[in-house]
Amino acid sequence: MTHTRVFSACFVSLLILGCTVVVCLVDERVTAAPASTIGYHSAETISDAIGGSTLPFVCGTNSPKCVDYCHLCYDFYEQPTMECLSQLVEVLCLFNFEAAMESLNSTDWCVWGNVNSLYSNVSFCTEEISDCLLIPWPNPLVEQIFVDIHSKFFKDCPTEELSDPPPAIIFALVITPICLIPVMVSLVVLKTKNGDGSS
After folding, report:
1. Contact at 8 Å (CB) between 63 and 43?
2. Domains of the chain as residue ranges with CATH
3. Distance from C-alpha of 157 to C-alpha of 106, rounded to nearest angstrom
4. Keywords assigned by UniProt (predicted)?
5. Cβ-Cβ contacts under 8 Å for 73 (sequence gap 6 or more)
6. pLDDT of residue 44
7. What is the DSSP letter of 54?
8. Using an 8 Å Cβ cutoff, are 54 and 46 in contact?
9. Are the C-beta atoms of residues 115 and 101 closer than 8 Å to each other?
10. What is the pLDDT of residue 62?
11. By C-alpha distance, which of 44, 7, 41 is closest to 136?
12. Closest CA to 65 of 141, 120, 133
């Protein structure tokens, strides 16, 4: 019984000591100045080093091109908007992608090895511009862009996993149960008529 009390007293004192250490650490973190980091998804107001002009909105800093993207949006739309994103993606991402796709034969469009890097580049480009403008990615505009890309370039590509079987197989699978039903009913009626069935 005394061992339990000693253990309980030690446990309670360690618990109190641990809580005070944690509270002190939390208090130190609260009083310390927050560190600002420039990273993948961090944001800050961008100041142009050459002109010294500051944008009136927050701009992403995940790419060195963010300053240019934000300045273009500010010059034409006064803020980062979906219209600005649409124009930037159209000019910077889709133009290059479509030119590269047109340089390939249409039969090469369905070979993933030929279009993998082009597709990845357009995906990265849309993500980079969206992150710079602090617009969530993916978004409805980007989704529609990829739907348009697929309907324009990849609609005739065969997909082995999702293709329908040939019409002859579909016909056989549908007609077999339909033909078996009257045969089974006829057998049951004949068997009961002859009195062979025992209940």
Report:
1. no
2. 43-153 (1.10.150.510)
3. 10
4. Cell membrane, Disulfide bond, Membrane, Receptor, Signal, Transmembrane, Transmembrane helix, Transport
5. 79, 80, 81, 84, 88, 133
6. 42
7. B
8. yes
9. yes
10. 81
11. 41
12. 133
